[in-house]
Amino acid sequence: MSPQDPTPDPGAPAPAWTPEDSASLYGVDAWGQGYFGVNPQGRLTVNPTQDPARSIDLLEVVEGMRERGLNTPLLLRFSDLLHHRLREIRRAFDSAIEEAEYQGTYRCIYPIKVNQQRHVCEEISKLGGPLGFGLEAGSKPELLAVLGLTSGKPDMPIVCNGFKDEEFIETVILAAKLGRNITTVVEKPSELDMLVKYSRKYAVRPQIGIRVKLAARGAGMWEASGGVRSKFGLFVSEILQALDLLEREGMADCLTMLHCHIGSQVHDIHHLEAAANEIARVYCELRNMGAGLRSIDVGGGLGVDYDGSQTNWASSTNYRLEEYAAAVVGKIQAACDHAEVPHPDILSESGRAMVSYSSLLVCNVLGRSSFDAGMPLCELEQDAADEDTPPPLRELLEVRSELTRDKMRWAFHKAAAARDQAHSLFDLGYLSLTGRAACDEVYWHICSRLWELAKDEDEVPEDLQPLDSSLSDIYFCNFSLFQSLPDSWAIHQVFPVCPIHRLDEEPTRRGVLADITCDSDGQIGQFPDKRQNKVKSVLELHELNPDEPYYIGFFLVGAYQEILGDLHNLLGDTHAVHIRLDGDDDWEVGEVVRGDSVREVLQYVNFQPEILEEALRREIEKATRRNRLTVREGRALLHYYREGLEGYTYLEDAEPEVLPTDPETPDSSDQKPEPARA
Questions:
Q1: 640: Cβ–Cβ under 8 A, 6 or more apart, which residues?
Q2: Considering only CA atoms, which of 541, 531, 549, 534 is closest in space to residue 497?
Q3: Which of 315, 342, 366, 628 makes an SS bond possible with 494, Cβ 3.0 to 4.6 Å?
Q4: What is the pLDDT of residue 334?
Q5: Taking a C-beta distance cutoff of 8 angstroms, is the pair 592, 575 a contact?
Q6: Does residue 399 fall inside a structural domain?
Q7: Residue 566: how many CB atoms within 10 A of its CB?
Q8: Domain end: 358, 388, 413, which one?
């Protein structure tokens, strides 16, 4: 073959699998945004400053934590990545303001509801000062936390959203008198009355904001949180009444901010542009009517591209950070220039975009349940012509023998009908347990062969598409979906998932991920697929090696997941480790927050471990007296009980192990998800 001939040699060996192949397969370069990569050793790396020369080997970190006595699951937070992300948001808006010659300033406000963990909030508060960033509180507990976080930082902006009672309002007014740069956003008319009341009482000129119910709506899973049906904010007519009240009280100049929010994770920039334009028009009108407005808070909405496809769908965004900044600045500037009013300062509450990238979860795989057919077919095929062979089994064997590429759909529906008949005969008592097991196994042999043929087609027939997930393995992972990834379960949020090592090996298995909770919903069966701009139902995985652990990483989990997690099966918070770069561009451990112990989660639900332990001790004493336990055995049980109370709620030091499916199990059909039928 000449050097100019692009036709591959059919006799040449297949090229070796490379780390670059894995990076492409799992979309690391796409959703990673330069913060994640794959090194030549086939390990996933974190690049906190988007510089590959300053990378952190994730496997090295996990193994280092294991040596320190911290087993997976581990939540890893990367402080330098968080700092870099905040600076990138600052840079994007500064560039947009400079290019447009915009006359106002920009400040990013972190809503602590996104992740209220003290360590995260303190990092943002610490860095927020030099960047001009601030904090948002949406409840009384959050307000108290924010007031503590901003101690000694009187210039740091504080925005108070959410419904408020008199205690909340009075606290805000006193904080303003203390010297805090705090703005209360009015969500309903009665809050304005309380603001006026306590402003008079304490002789304070407060900073007041009003949330506007915009006609513009967001796009995606949180679309309903915006628009005129939003539970927060005032209608335009109510805003005019509010301004009239403030004018009567001589406080029109105290109305300093307009606020809006069209929903989290807005994936279409056109919706963001429409909202920015509408809020700017309202600002201009109110400003000309005498309001002392100086700023516009465009709320949340800046999305995260979870799958890296940069497309207009819920788990992605069709815009970049720079485009978002330019759109917001441009729309507000255009409206103000047209109305000939000063450009306001711009605030955004871009919490998801601030913290999502900085946290990831790593767990170990405990084992695998495989759906590979296990019953030898040679014995069954010998019985195909036997008169005593059950008709469904005979029909299935015939389908298998006649299966060809041009008869795939016929074979699938014929096999499904025969298997249904076998189950019906078994339920009526006309088919033995052995006969049913044989029919099931031949059916799955047919399905396996069908998928091998179908996936080589240019387009898999719609009837056969469910076979991909039906034939996949289940990898059992040492974590709780409900604790660590609640949005995956509750709203089907897609998160990037991939192994953190062995990425120089081609993955030969396809599977879904199941957690260790006793809940059938504790399973992930949707994964980003940038190549097809949609989700895929299975993840490419490697064969398990019984001599080494296999680790899976869940990425971009810094927003909402920690604070929304629950105690399903009393599986508590995971260990959280803060990692940062040292002066030599190596990684070092910052703060370590140990996960919940069994004792702690029991106390969360009002159990008293001491009473439980005493009850068990008395039971052991009775058993010892009745010679059901020896004294040594009783002591051992009590020792393990006490150790368990102080231990991690997750499984510890579990070695990977392949869990084969027993082909002889009578209920094996229940372990194999059944493909959809026409």
A1: none
A2: 541
A3: 315
A4: 97
A5: yes
A6: yes
A7: 12
A8: 358
Q: How high is the pLDDT of residue 15? A: 81
Same domain as 226, residue 300: yes
Q: Is the peptide bond before 73 cis (omega within 30 degrees of 0)?
A: yes
For 409, the domain range is 377-467+662-671
Would you say residue 340 has pLDDT above 90? yes
Tokens of 487: 């949005």
Q: Using CB atoms within 10 A of its CB, is residue 611 exposed (0-12), middle (13-18) or buried (19+)?
A: exposed
Do 217 and 152 lie in one domain? The reply is yes
Q: Are residues 133 and 277 in the same domain?
A: yes
- What percentage of the chain has pLDDT greater than the value 90? 69
Within-domain flag for 147: yes
The verdict on 261 and 410 lying in the same domain is no
% pLDDT > 70, the chain? 89
Tell me which of 227 and 258 has the higher pLDDT.
Answer: 258
Beta bridge partners of 528: 535
The amino acid occupying position 633 is E
How many CA atoms are closer than 13 Å to the CA of 410, on its beta-carbon side?
10
Helix segments in 403-460, DSSP class H: 408-428, 433-454
CATH number at residue 408: 1.20.58.930
Residue 588 domain flag: no
Neighbours of 371 (CB within 10 A): 19
Sequential DSSP letters for 9-47: PTTSPPPPP-HHHHHHHTTHHHHTTTSEEE-TTS-EEE-
Q: Are residues 121 and 249 in the same domain?
A: yes
Question: How far does Cα 227 stand from its chain's mean position?
Answer: 25
> Are residues 453 and 307 part of one domain?
no
Is residue 623 exposed (0-12), middle (13-18) or buried (19+ Cβ within 10 Å)? Answer: middle
* Helix or strand (DSSP H, E) at 622: helix 609-625
Task: Compute the mean pLDDT over every residue in the chain, rounded to the nearest whole number.
Answer: 88
CA angle 312, 467, 438 (to 5 degrees): 165
User: Can you tell me the distance from the alpha carbon of 29 to that of 187, in angstroms, rounded to the nearest whole number?
Assistant: 41
Pairing label, strands 158-160, 509-514: unpaired
Structure tokens given for 458: 């240019």
Asked if pLDDT for residue 377 goes beyond 80, the answer is no
Which residues sit opposite 295 in a β-bridge?
257, 345
- pLDDT category at 666 given cuts 50, 70, 90 is very low
Whichever domain contains 166, its CATH number is 3.20.20.10
Query: Whole-angstrom Cα distance, residue 439 to residue 416?
Result: 10
Buried b (16+ CB within 10 A) or exposed e, 504-522: bbebebbbbbbbbbeeeeb
Contact 254, 205 (CB under 8 A): yes
- CA 97: distance to chain centroid? 32
Number of domains the chain is built from: 3
Rounded mean pLDDT, 427-443: 89
State pTM to two decimals.
Answer: 0.87
- Return d(Cα 463, Cα 411) in angstroms, integer: 11
Distance, in Å, from the CA atom of 134 to the CA atom of 137, rounded to the nearest integer, reads: 10
Please report, as a single letter, which amino acid is at residue 225.
S
Average confidence (pLDDT) over 278-293: 96
Judge if 426 and 289 occupy the same domain: no
Give the pLDDT confidence score for residue 175 in this predicted structure.
Answer: 95
Contacts of range 33-39, beta carbons closer than 8 Å, 24 or more positions apart:
33/305, 33/308, 33/357, 35/81, 35/84, 35/357, 36/555, 38/503
Same domain, yes or no: 259 and 316: yes
Classify residue 439: in a domain, yes or no: yes
